[in-house]
Amino acid sequence: MQKQNILLIINPVAGRKKANKIVYQIVDSLSRNNCRTVIFMTTRKGEATDLIIEHAHDCHKIICCGGDGTLSEVLSGLIRLDMKIPVGYIPTGTTNDFAHSLNLPTDIDSAIEATTNGHIQKHDIGSFNEGQYFSYVASFGAFSKVSYSTPQWLKNFFGHMAYIFNGILSITGIRPHKVKVIADGDEIAGDFIFGSVSNSKVIGGIVRFLESDVSFDDGKFEVLLIKKPRSIKDFGRIVKGVFRRRYDDQNICFFKASKVSFAFEKDTDWTIDGEYAGTLCNVQIKNLPCTAQVMIV
């Protein structure tokens, strides 16, 4: 049986630095599965993309051990190379939205098993203003800053609760964004406090969609827009709808689209896969169907 060449990329500071404790376990398991493994530890934001571009050419498979942001960098690197190499994901981040969305195991033994003996799930990727890519979500507005503004030490200490603490503190800063949205030719305009374009069942561990609402390889995104509430009662209905996964309220717009553009009245902060993506007036998002191949159980 021919040995498989594996590129293992580890983010040692993701989540509660869990990857540091399991690296030998991962390598031992891969060796026992007839794999030849090259290992890199990331030391800065964006390095996983650079490592993919430099070292992915001779790989049969790539394994990412870190959070959703690290995985996003890995997939971005493959898109830039125009290569479709299966990617295994061992989630050790704080929220692990991508892993939860695909029902990937979070216990280490099962996660390693999925990377070596699982099967491939094709997954659409998002193009963000042509130069950037996201694996599961691009968003603006309420709480979007929480994921990248929460200090790493706080995430390491409190885990997912750190996002909730930081989110509560940011409530007073919620403001509406006047924007015109064009989705597959249809136009929507208004004042929105939150907007997301996603290919995931979970966003930030809080916003969740029904299984029937999401297909990872259909060439369509799920677009969620939440209007500025006019009263406390409106705000209560919005919160209740989000937690109950009911998006039929008059203050919530929920639909599918493959191409979405946003034209804001003022520069607006965006995040992609939980990382700061820029302060922008105009955003163009396009679905790249079945661009990624992710190993699942």
TrEMBL record:
Gene3D superfamilies, sorted: 2.60.200.40, Probable inorganic polyphosphate/atp-NAD kinase, domain 1
Molecular function terms, GO-annotated: ATP binding; ATP-dependent diacylglycerol kinase activity; metal ion binding
UniProt-listed GO biological process terms: phospholipid biosynthetic process
SMART domains hit by this protein: DAGKc (SM00046)
SUPFAM superfamilies associated with the record: NAD kinase/diacylglycerol kinase-like (SSF111331)
Cofactor requirements of the protein: Mg(2+)
Keyword Nucleotide-binding in record: yes
A GO term from the CC aspect: plasma membrane
Domain named DAGKc: residues: 1-131
Classification via PROSITE patterns: DAGK (PS50146)
PANTHER family (UniProt xref): LIPID KINASE YEGS, SPHINGOSINE KINASE
Protein name: Diacylglycerol kinase family lipid kinase
The organism of origin for this protein: Breznakiella homolactica
